[in-house]
Amino acid sequence: MPKRTNIEIDNIPYQYKNRKLQMGKSYTSPDFGSHTVLTDDIFTYIDFYFSGHKKAMKYRNATVSKPKYGDERKYHYSFYWKQAMSFYCAAKTLPIESVPLLSYYSILNAVKAFLAFKCEYIEDFVEDFSRHGLFENTNISGNDLSSIYVGHQNKGVFVLFGRMLEQNFDTIWVSGKLNTIPLKKLFYNLAFIHRAFITTYNTPRGAKIPELFIPVKTSQSPCYFKGNDSNLYLKFEIDSSLFGVAPLTVPTAYINSISSKFKVSNENKFILQSVNGAKRNTQDSLSADFKNGNDELRREFQYIRSSKRLWYLKRTALSNPDVMNINSMLIIMAAMHRISEIVRYKPEQMAHLLNSKENWLLHEFLTLSLDQFIDELAAEITGQDIMCTGIK
Predict the structure, then answer these.
(1) Does 281 share its domain with 137?
(2) More confident residue, 279 or 376
């Protein structure tokens, strides 16, 4: 019998534990079997989650480490999470000129909670916790976002976080003074402020900045479907309105700028599907092959925190030096650290930026990024999709 060459994909999402199998918010440990959690108090929910997943903090070698670092209980992840919540609440009361400082410390302590929860032994993180792992480039004036740079060191909270989220973190963003990145480039790579970015820098007579994110059809998550080879394929419909009025298909320039992991589905000109399928074990068991494949595909997407499911496919193959294929939480943390330094040491520079043409973009970042970051990190801690209600 001749070997099949054309893969036919089901039209109904694959059912896993009596629910459709879809892309989850978490990058590293998605819980595909859990229900969506609905809450507008994410700090309290994670505190509740921690209380149900108790883990004793311990040293690998208590004889050597305890005299050096002290009582192991003081490094408990719940402590850092409560610190993050305190800074978060305080940040929400401040004027925009002061927000970055407390927002950064909320992010820093939330990351410490995540690392303490995920690391097996205190020795795995305690040395990194004594430093941020980020630094500024002071050799440039910093009159606008394109001339304000941030880089990272070999150790510190940021670096440990990066290595936990990205296996090739040190290759994607090399440490050292020669590899600092401007805030403008960091901002370009964040979906939740992308419209503000495009609006800020596009001018009537200037070259148009290419859209970096393609919206997935509103309120739909990319889902997995079973192929006739029994493998699972990711499939999703993109919002065709990005391409103008009544477009016939996805423009070639967009197809060529997305990852080769995807292709246009034969059945619909605006449905994309993964090229390779991932094996499954049974209807109630997902294979390591599937989980590894999902990890790779997840890095092609970003989402915007909302009461709806707002997913975006990133044009990771776009030929543009400003494209960074790195986790959005790392971008937010690095940018917020740099802006917090400006607030602390050069408030006059912050005032200048807030009175420049980049005012709205900077304002959007400072207003939205802390909630976006905490939402993404909460998914990383729990593996769950946590949605807000949208009720104020």
Answers:
(1) no
(2) 376
Number of domains in the chain: 2
Q: Is the pLDDT confidence value at 139 over 80?
A: no
Where among 314, 345, 378 does a domain terminate? 314
Place of tokens 């079973």: 226
**Residues with Cβ within 8 Å of residue 392, at least 6 apart in sequence:** none
Task: Judge if 298 and 357 occupy the same domain.
Answer: no
pLDDT digits (tens, 9 = 90+) for 319-374: 999 999 999 999 999 999 999 999 999 999 999 999 999 999 999 999 999 999 99
Task: Judge whether 152 and 133 are in contact, CB under 8 Å.
Answer: yes
Task: Please provide residue 105's backbone torsions phi and psi, each rounded to the nearest 5 degrees.
Answer: -70, -25
- Co-location of 235 and 303 in the same domain: yes
Is the Cβ–Cβ distance between 152 and 175 less than 8 Å?
Answer: yes
pTM of the model: 0.95
Cβ-in-10-Å burial (0-12, 13-18, 19+) of 95 comes to: exposed
In a domain? residue 44: yes
Which ranges in the chain belong to alpha helices (H)?
42-52, 62-69, 77-91, 99-118, 157-165, 169-172, 183-188, 194-201, 252-255, 288-298, 328-345, 347-354, 359-382
Residue 199 lies inside a defined structural domain of this protein:
no
Which residue range(s) make up the domain with 80? Answer: 37-189+329-387
pLDDT the model gives residue 4: 44
Question: Residue 41 falls within a domain, yes or no?
Answer: yes
Q: What are phi and psi of 20, to 5 degrees?
A: -65, 140
Q: DSSP label at 374?
A: H
Is residue 75 located within the same domain as residue 180?
yes
Task: Please report, for residues 64, 71, 126, the alpha-carbon distance to residue 61 in angstroms, rounded to integers and kept in the order given.
Answer: 6, 13, 13
| pLDDT digit string, tens, across residues 193-204 | 999 999 999 988
- pLDDT surpasses 50 at 1: no
For the stretch 150-191, pLDDT in tens is: 999 999 999 999 999 999 999 999 998 889 999 999 999 999
In the chain, the amino acid numbered 7 is I
User: What is the residue-wise DSSP string for 72-114?
Assistant: GGGG-HHHHHHHHHHHHHHHTTS-TTTHHHHHHHHHHHHHHHH
Last residue of one domain, picked from the residues 263, 284, 314: 314
Residues 178 and 63 in one domain: yes
Cα dihedral sign, 370-374-380-381: positive
